Amino acid sequence: MEHNHRIDLVPNKKYRLTRQMYLFPEQEVSPRVNDYLKIGAVVTYLKSGELAEDNKVRMPWVYVRSEKQKKRDMGKGQEGWCFSHYLQAAEDGEARI
Predict the structure, then answer these.
(1) What is the pTM of this model?
(2) What is the C-alpha separation between 19 and 1, in angstroms, rounded?
(3) Domains in the chain, start-ordered, CATH in brackets?
(4) What is the pLDDT of residues 3-12, one digit of tens each?
(5) Which residue from 90, 89, 34 is spatially nearest to 65, judged by alpha carbons?
(6) Which one, of 54, 63, 75, 80, lies nearest residue 9 by Cα?
C-alpha cells in the first residue's frame, strides 16, 4: 500500500528530525554525504525538490541546513538534501539543543 505524505513547510523555519538521516549533496541516496544527523537534530528548511519514495512513502526531497551543535553527531552546520517525511516542526524553545 502506497502512502502519500504532505507536510506544509515554511522557508527558514526550523524542523526537528524524527529519525536519523544523512544530508546528501544531490537529490539521491549516495555514498557522498554532507552531514549525518541523529534523531532530534534541528534543521532549517530552505526549499523543496523532486518527489521521492522511501519505505513506500512518496514525499518531496527538501534542501535544509543543519544547525551546528555542540553535541557530537547532532549537526555540523552543513546544507544538503533529505526526505521531508521525517521533519517535524520544532517549537521555538526547542531550536537549541
Answers:
(1) 0.81
(2) 22
(3) 3-90 (2.30.30.40)
(4) 444 568 999 9
(5) 34
(6) 63
